[in-house]
Amino acid sequence: MTEERSTELIFISFTLLLGNVVAALNCTSPTPEALFDALNDSLFTKNQIRPVKTFSHPVNISVSITLVGILGVDEKSQILTTVLWQVLQWNIEGLSWDKEECGTSRVSVLRGNIWVPDIEIAEFMEEDKSPQAPYVYLYNTGLVYDDKPVRVVSSCRLVIYTFPFDIQNCSLTFGSYLHFASDISVFPDITAEETLQQSRHVLQTNGEWELTNITIAHSTLVLDVGSYSEIKYFIILRRRPLLYVVNLLLPSCFLITLDLFSFLLPPQSVDRSSFKMTLILGYTVFLLIMNDLLPVTGETTPLINIFFSISLALMVASLLETVFITNIQISSSQYSPVPRWLSVLVLQYLAVVVCIPPKKKTNRVTVFFNRSTGDPTLNSSVPVGELQSLSNTGPNIKYTDRDLALEELKKLSRDLLAIRLQMDKHFLGNNTSEEWQMIGVVIDRLLFGLYIVFITVSFVTIICIWVYSNFNVT
Ligand SMILES: *[C@@H]1O[C@H](CO)[C@@H](O)[C@H](O)[C@H]1NC(C)=O
Ligand SMILES: *[C@@H]1O[C@H](CO)[C@@H](O)[C@H](O)[C@H]1NC(C)=O
Ligand SMILES: *[C@@H]1O[C@H](CO)[C@@H](O)[C@H](O)[C@H]1NC(C)=O
Ligand SMILES: *[C@@H]1O[C@H](CO)[C@@H](O)[C@H](O)[C@H]1NC(C)=O
Ligand SMILES: *[C@@H]1O[C@H](CO)[C@@H](O)[C@H](O)[C@H]1NC(C)=O
Ligand SMILES: *[C@@H]1O[C@H](CO)[C@@H](O)[C@H](O)[C@H]1NC(C)=O
Ligand SMILES: *[C@@H]1O[C@H](CO)[C@@H](O)[C@H](O)[C@H]1NC(C)=O
Ligand SMILES: *[C@@H]1O[C@H](CO)[C@@H](O)[C@H](O)[C@H]1NC(C)=O
Ligand SMILES: *[C@@H]1O[C@H](CO)[C@@H](O)[C@H](O)[C@H]1NC(C)=O
């Protein structure tokens, strides 16, 4: 029983061994026909068998790619389209022929005639539309050289936060879709530097994208069912920002600078508000036209959109402020006095922030003081002095005339008092309107400062990001 079993086992393993081994070829003559016949007899009939001597041997497949074209990056659907030359090489164990006997060291055979591995790119999003390459090279050492173009539409997580200075890191994962690592294992054939150099050499259509670096990671993916051998190529791409700088950032900066300098126009004139209004209109139209250039993803908002929003917000704020100031200039004398908190906040704190000394206030205090001291009862001495001079001019006139004059002077005094009260009232109105105007000036200055700070910060940020992204590459 055991004997029978063991002979059976030996027989099975022997047939398996024989079935998988391709013997050395014997060509009858050094012609293509002879070689083809030999191949037809010993190799082509076994195109379903993994070309190894025993099942425990994995087929070692070396992978190398050359990036030939970067066709497009679609931020919305997060897709990268590239064209690669993909070279796979593996050995058919046992296959060999003599170069002299068969007349050549390599021959091209149809892909369907031999076993080919199912190496796929894991990130594939669309079927391969690249031209078909029907042949592979077969060498007399048993090496199979499979070179074909692949148009890869791969998913890639695109991060556009720093648009247009963004750098993308997209991976292409090569591995067998079905076979475990014990059956097919993949290796990188050439180093990342060589891949990068070759790709740079042949890269033609890259549009706005620049190939920055390629790195390779060779790993084994372990799942419940088994482990898979895979190679990850990380393709680092950098956007060329010049187009966007010229078309988006510079015009925007120009418009903002224009708006900044419009603060030099006198705020009370209507010119300033209409000027700003025109600017806002222009900016809106500009954004509308340039909207196509901006990338869209649901995930993150690019920094540049925030920049545009803040720019627009500043423009609108400055227009509102101009309207406010114009209103103050024209009709603030009818306003109720400035609320205490507003006056303290704006004239005492913000005025210091924007470096306007609160000197007008002391002036007002003087006016106020003059009014309080100018009590009519106290100043009755002045008419008395004039009364004496009056009496001196007319010696005939005695008591009755003097009473009359006194009466006249009292009337005059009352009139003067009325005039004075009127003046005080006028000054009071002056005071509140002046205070409102001060507030307007302070807010004007504050917004001007904010503008300068924003423009400086955004310029510095843009330049920093630009320099950083350039520096990162080299
Ligand atoms: C080729 O010839 C050698 C000896 O000359 C022989 O051992 C071998 O089996 C032959 N191969 C085939 C495929 O016939
Ligand atoms: C290849 O071999 C098969 C069977 O071994 C045979 O039927 C076929 O005619 C051969 N092809 C050529 C072109 O000789
Ligand atoms: C494949 O590679 C492994 C390790 O690199 C080696 O041990 C094995 O012999 C190779 N197999 C073949 C068929 O070349
Ligand atoms: C690209 O991404 C991979 C994985 O996310 C990471 O390991 C690698 O360092 C990244 N490369 C660069 C240059 O950022
Ligand atoms: C590419 O990336 C590798 C690893 O991050 C780094 O060592 C190498 O210097 C980079 N090459 C270039 C040209 O930036
Ligand atoms: C009243 O105001 C005038 C000028 O504003 C000033 O010269 C004068 O000293 C003031 N009078 C008093 C009593 O403060
Ligand atoms: C009238 O006013 C002056 C200051 O303006 C003051 O010095 C004087 O004492 C006042 N007259 C009387 C009678 O008090
Ligand atoms: C002018 O305004 C100041 C500050 O609010 C106030 O103290 C002063 O009494 C005002 N002057 C008048 C004449 O109302
Ligand atoms: C009051 O306003 C008028 C102009 O409206 C100005 O000429 C005058 O100097 C102001 N008075 C004070 C005390 O500021």
Automatic annotation (TrEMBL):
<keyword id="KW-0628">Postsynaptic cell membrane</keyword>
<keyword id="KW-0472">Membrane</keyword>
<dbReference type="InterPro" id="IPR006029">
    <property type="entry name" value="Neurotrans-gated_channel_TM"/>
</dbReference>
<keyword id="KW-0732">Signal</keyword>
<feature type="transmembrane region" description="Helical">
    <location>
        <begin position="446"/>
        <end position="468"/>
    </location>
</feature>
<dbReference type="GO" id="GO:0004888">
    <property type="term" value="F:transmembrane signaling receptor activity"/>
</dbReference>
<dbReference type="InterPro" id="IPR049944">
    <property type="entry name" value="LGIC_TM_5-HT3"/>
</dbReference>
<comment type="function">
    <text>Forms serotonin (5-hydroxytryptamine/5-HT3)-activated cation-selective channel complexes, which when activated cause fast, depolarizing responses in neurons.</text>
</comment>
<dbReference type="InterPro" id="IPR006201">
    <property type="entry name" value="Neur_channel"/>
</dbReference>
<keyword id="KW-1133">Transmembrane helix</keyword>
<dbReference type="Pfam" id="PF02931">
    <property type="entry name" value="Neur_chan_LBD"/>
</dbReference>
<feature type="transmembrane region" description="Helical">
    <location>
        <begin position="277"/>
        <end position="294"/>
    </location>
</feature>
<dbReference type="InterPro" id="IPR036734">
    <property type="entry name" value="Neur_chan_lig-bd_sf"/>
</dbReference>
<comment type="similarity">
    <text>Belongs to the ligand-gated ion channel (TC 1.A.9) family.</text>
</comment>
<protein>
    <recommendedName>
        <fullName>5-hydroxytryptamine receptor 3A-like</fullName>
    </recommendedName>
</protein>
<keyword id="KW-1003">Cell membrane</keyword>
<dbReference type="Pfam" id="PF02932">
    <property type="entry name" value="Neur_chan_memb"/>
</dbReference>
<dbReference type="GO" id="GO:0005230">
    <property type="term" value="F:extracellular ligand-gated monoatomic ion channel activity"/>
</dbReference>
<keyword id="KW-0407">Ion channel</keyword>
<keyword id="KW-0770">Synapse</keyword>
<feature type="signal peptide">
    <location>
        <begin position="1"/>
        <end position="23"/>
    </location>
</feature>
<dbReference type="GO" id="GO:0045211">
    <property type="term" value="C:postsynaptic membrane"/>
</dbReference>
<keyword id="KW-0406">Ion transport</keyword>
<dbReference type="InterPro" id="IPR038050">
    <property type="entry name" value="Neuro_actylchol_rec"/>
</dbReference>
<keyword id="KW-0813">Transport</keyword>
<feature type="domain" description="Neurotransmitter-gated ion-channel ligand-binding">
    <location>
        <begin position="41"/>
        <end position="241"/>
    </location>
</feature>
<feature type="domain" description="Neurotransmitter-gated ion-channel transmembrane">
    <location>
        <begin position="249"/>
        <end position="462"/>
    </location>
</feature>
<dbReference type="InterPro" id="IPR036719">
    <property type="entry name" value="Neuro-gated_channel_TM_sf"/>
</dbReference>
<keyword id="KW-0812">Transmembrane</keyword>
<keyword id="KW-1015">Disulfide bond</keyword>
<dbReference type="InterPro" id="IPR006202">
    <property type="entry name" value="Neur_chan_lig-bd"/>
</dbReference>
<feature type="transmembrane region" description="Helical">
    <location>
        <begin position="242"/>
        <end position="265"/>
    </location>
</feature>
<feature type="transmembrane region" description="Helical">
    <location>
        <begin position="338"/>
        <end position="356"/>
    </location>
</feature>
<keyword id="KW-0675">Receptor</keyword>
<feature type="transmembrane region" description="Helical">
    <location>
        <begin position="306"/>
        <end position="326"/>
    </location>
</feature>
<keyword id="KW-1071">Ligand-gated ion channel</keyword>
<dbReference type="InterPro" id="IPR018000">
    <property type="entry name" value="Neurotransmitter_ion_chnl_CS"/>
</dbReference>
<keyword id="KW-0325">Glycoprotein</keyword>
